[in-house]
Amino acid sequence: MECKECGKQYILLSNHVLKAHGIKPDDYRRKHNIPLMQPLADDELRNHLSSKAQIRALTTEGVAHIRRMLATCDRQAQTGKKRDLPECSVEHCHVKNEKKSASFRERKLPALLVDWNNGMSIRDVSLKHLVAEVTLRKWVQEGYLPKRKRVYVVADSAS
Ligand SMILES: [Zn+2]
Fold first, then answer.
1. How many distinct structural domains can be found in the chain?
2. Overall pTM > 0.70
């Protein structure tokens, strides 16, 4: 994305205009007649960072990491080299999330397992231990929780 102040290419323009020209992103948009809702980032970058959910999932550390990666990208862009988009930034955020969910699981599992093994329904376990039913099903799939035995009630037609 081209900076209308200096004509250079930047991936995350909002970062650049503030740092290099001391212009707030909204002022930059007003000055250059850019709609206020329009993001000051490359389409390439936005597609790369796939979903908004992922961007939201970034921790403060993750955001700092992306910023560092983008700075490198922008330096590469200045030298005319092919830019390497922050590949590991997204991974970084996945790793963070995995760590977070692992510690959540470790906290919840011991108490929950007792009720689970006593045959409490998924819904009741979910409500009592404040773990989403989807998460519980995932833990079963991943082998952290034993599979529930299905109970088939067969109507006795012989009687
Ligand atoms: Zn500029």
1. 1
2. no
**φ and ψ of 9, to 5 deg:** -90, 130
Interval between CA 52 and ligand 1 midpoint (Å): 26
Contact 3, 10 (CB under 8 A): yes
How does DSSP classify residue 40? S
> Residue 43 Cα, ligand 1 centroid: separation in angstroms?
18
Residue 33 falls within a domain, yes or no? yes
Residue 48 in any domain: the answer is yes
CA quadruple 135, 137, 143, 144: dihedral sign? positive
Query: What is the span of the domain harbouring residue 73?
Result: 13-88
Residue 138 CA to ligand 1 center (angstroms) comes to: 47
In a domain, 142, yes or no: no
CA 124 / ligand 1 centre spacing (Å)? 57
pLDDT digits (tens, 9 = 90+) for 103-127: 888 889 999 999 998 888 899 999 9
In a domain, 120, yes or no: no
d(CA 44, ligand 1 centre) in Å: 19
pLDDT digits (tens, 9 = 90+) for 20-37: 999 988 899 899 988 776
